[in-house]
Structure formats: C-alpha cells, structure tokens
Amino acid sequence: MAVAGMANSGPLAGVRVVELAGIGPGPFAAMLLADLGADVVRVDRPGGAGLGIAPEYDITNRNKRSVIVDLKAADGPARVLDLVEKADVLIEGYRPGVAERLGVGPEACHARNPRLVYGRMTGWGQDGPLAQRAGHDIAYIALTGTLGMIGRPDEPPTVPANLLGDYAGGSLYLVVGVLAALHHARDTGTGQVVDAAIVDGASHLASMIHGMFASGGWQDRRGTNLLDGGCPFYGSYETSDGQYMAVGALEQQFYDEFVRLLGIADTAPPRHELARWDELRAAVAAQFKTRTREEWTAVFEGSDACVAPVLSMAEAPRHPHLAARGTFTDHGGITQAAPAPRFSATPTAVRTGPAQPGADTEDVAGDWDVPSLTKGISSETEEDN
Question: Is the full-model pTM beyond 0.85?
C-alpha cells in the first residue's frame, strides 16, 4: 500500500495501525511499528494529551500521521470504528474498561473487523487486584523485584529512567505480541486481544536472574552479584576528571587483558577469591583515578578488555562507531536514534518528523477511504488513562 507523501518502506509496509493517543509505552510501541514501515494513524483528542512535551519534539510520534477525533462526541466512536474497519492493528493504553465505555473496546472493534489485532498496553494488566489503580513505570518495576536489584547495597535502588518498565517491559512486549497475533490473524482470518502489562514484561525480563537465584548463583540483595555491580570487574569507575569508564571483563581472557592494560596485573588480588573482591575493587578504582577518561579510552582502544567510556546523551551520537553505523540520525533539527533493528531487504528510515495533532486528517480520510473523519470536531476532551 503506497501512502501519499509517506513513501513507506520497511518489513511492515502495507500494515495499517490505529493508535488511540496516550502517553508512555503505547506511543513508543506505535512508533516502533511505524519505524518498521506500518502506516500508523494516531487518533489524537481535542486539546491534546500527554506530559507537556511540545508536539514538534515528541519523537515517539515520528513516522506517523494524526487525526483528531473526540471519542466523547456522539459520532466519535463511529469515526474510530470506521478506521478500525480498514486497519490490521489497534493500540490503546487506557485503564481497563475505559475503551469499552468509550465504545471502542474489543467487542465493538471485532464486530466491525474480525481480523483486527487489538493491542492493550497497561502497567498492571487487564485484571488482578491492582488493575484499576493508577501507576507509572517506577511502581510497576518496584512490584516485580526488578527495581530492587538495581543499585548499590547501601543506597536506595537506582531509578533506570523509564526504560526498564515502560519501554522494555511494556512497549517491546506489546510489539512482540502484536506481531505474533498479526501472523496468526493472517493465517486464520481471526484477530484477538493482546494484553501487554508492564508487570508481566518486566518480570519476564528477569527470567535468567530467577534461574540463577533458584540455583544459588544469585543473592537476593542488590550490588552483591556478578551482573549488578557487586563484581569488581563488572561495573563503572571514576576517572581523574570526574568522568567514568565501564568495565565488563567477565571471561578470564578478557580479564587478563583488562588488568594488564590497567597496570595492576602483578598486584591485583585473585579474581576468584570473593572474600577479596572489596580489595580488588579498591585497587581498580584507585588505578582508574590516575588518568582521565580520554586517556583511559586511548589505553583500551582496540583491545578485548571489554572496557568503554561512559558517554553522555550529547556525546553518544559523536562516537566514531555509532557515527559509522548511523545509529543516530538528525531529522528536522532533532538528533535521535535511527530505526532499529536493520533489515537487508526492507530498509527502514525516519520518513517524517513527529505527527502534529490533526494535521493529516484529510490525507488519511482519502487514503483509508474514511470520509467520516473530515466531519466537524467537538471541543470536548476524551477520558484519560
């Protein structure tokens, strides 16, 4: 399906997605589908919705198109259902029951389009004692045990932005579920509901850790294990200029190269003596403090010591490796991550900047053959998450 002005490419070209506007993991999941080539139409509410990000900077709305529909208006649900009839996927992030009350729940949508994949993104899930409770990323990962394993043992848990819950445990699991259900729908002609809950996804991410814990190979205390900063050769160290270097020299051959280049091969305590890990950590820390980050980067350049400089968000796009791969791109004056992953036969790209609310109503109405979209829009606001 060719979309006017969009030049869609990518493995999902031809897939039509309706996104009911929300915040956080839903928009990011829809952005990923759009990056992969899907024609994503975001249904924005009159007056906007979100956390105050100016629409022109909301990168999670790139590669999409926007229409405005007031779902509380008398004809609002019918307009969305007209879109649903032409869609392959719908994504919503309301609290359980809200979409049903607005007239665009799974039953109403599947009555118009039995093949539809109906993706639901929530923190707590569609059922359970907390299903109706408000929440944000930090509360979801707190309950799953994943927040509690991040940070030093003598300090509060470290907050991993909203990457672990909203995006890793939420958006990515929603996308996996939607694509699996889409495959099933194309094979059988039958759609279904995908219940993606951040508490489920964040818990699932820790599968290996739960296995290690069951075997006795992981302590249920943060900052005391191989991969959580407890290990002196897997962590970050401050340099003389107040910057940091990251070390991940787990295997013996990488560790040997690490201590040799660091200059402590002859004096470091044996790495397998856990009782001397504090001593080893102190030795590594003291050595890193003798040079700047730039100097240490040069020392470890080209080696297999598994050491890298800790870069800031502003620095990362300029790193030679990321620059060579085109990991970041500039579009519309905004530096942002390029679509990922990459495909040999169906390349992806940032085709358009963030969709501006309602700017694409006429184009979508024509492309999708949904003339009802161009009717007048009520000024009422839609029920929020």
Answer: yes
